[in-house]
Specification:
Helix content: over 70%
Shape: elongated
Largest sheet: none
Number of domains: 2
Length: about 300
């Protein structure tokens, strides 16, 4: 009896490499089909989007016509709205045209109007920067006027003191005391004038700020269809008004002062009389040649009337 072969055949062939290669090939082909479909979908989307954009131009133009807005002025705004909206359409959206509606253009034009108003406000803030009113009508615009008024009244007050000294009502001691009191009143008089000047300047500056307010209102209330806002006419008005105010400043300050006396001459003479004490009068005033009895009568009148000038 012969023995069995003992399984001496060849081992099974390993096909794992070929199988893996086939699997990878199948995967690549599947991915290629997916990529091809995506590419086709993108092409289809771009076509739809292009069609939607073309139609949007007509939609936007029609919307302008409905609102009575000129296409030659706002056509570029419509183009900008279309361009911004195009960027917001999700890729591969099945209906890009749904993003280009009247509401889209209404919202876009409202945003443009708001932007223009903000730009106008910025122009006003630049042209009428804080402190513009003081630049046009400065704090020292009234200095010469105030000094002139004070100097004129001071000169008149000193003349009255000189007159009363010549009449013998004031001796040198009394005159010097009265003159010194005028110096004290000088500061108070300037304070009074400064207050009046500041008030007149303040009213003038309010007029300038009113012009700025008009510019601000016009700029912030701009609406589509209106002429473009221009701040220059308002700036020119403010400058012209400031020049007019400066030319009339002297008259306005003097009118506000009225008949107010900045120096109390009678009070100064009274202080001089108190300081000098009794005066030894001769029978004849050497300065005027006035008899003593007549001089006494004049002295009484001088004291009663010396405050008016």
């Amino acid at each position: 009896m012969s023995g069995g072969g003992g399984g001496g055949g060849l081992p099974p062939q390993d096909n794992s490499v070929q199988v893996e290669m086939m699997r990878q090939q199948a995967a690549r082909e599947a991915q290629a089909r997916v990529d091809s479909q995506k590419a086709q979908d993108k092409l289809d989307f771009q076509g739809k989007l292009s069609t939607a954009v073309s139609g949007a131009k007509d939609t936007g133009t029609n919307y302008l016509n409905q609102r009575g807005l000129a296409n030659d002025k706002y056509g570029s705004v419509i183009d900008s709205i279309i361009g911004n909206t195009k960027l917001k359409v999700p890729e591969l959206d099945s209906n890009p045209g749904s993003y280009f509606t009247d509401d889209t253009f209404a919202s876009g034009l409202d945003n443009y109007q708001t932007m223009q108003r903000n730009n106008n406000t910025s122009k006003v803030n630049t042209a009428f920067a804080p402190g513009f009113d003081k630049s046009l009508l400065s704090d020292n615009a009234d200095d010469d006027i105030l000094n002139n008024i004070l100097g004129t009244q001071r000169a008149g007050a000193e003349q009255q003191l000189d007159f009363n000294r010549k009449r013998g009502i004031l001796n040198d001691s009394g005159y010097n005391t009265a003159f010194g009191d005028l110096g004290r009143q000088n500061s108070a008089g300037m304070a009074t004038l400064t207050g009046i000047g500041d008030s007149v300047l303040g009213k003038g500056r309010q007029t300038l700020n009113d012009i700025r307010g008009e510019a601000g209102t016009a700029g912030s209330s701009y609406a589509l269809g209106m002429p473009d806002f221009d701040v220059n006419p308002y700036s020119q008005r403010a400058t012209e008004k400031a020049n007019t105010l400066k030319s009339g400043l002297d008259g306005n300050i003097r009118s506000a002062l009225g008949s107010t006396n900045l120096f109390d001459v009678a009070g100064a003479i009274a202080k001089g009389g108190t300081a000098q004490g009794p005066i030894n009068l001769t029978t004849v005033d050497t300065a005027q040649g006035v008899p003593f009895a007549q001089k006494k009568s004049q002295r009484g009148r001088g004291l009663n009337s010396s405050g008016a000038f």
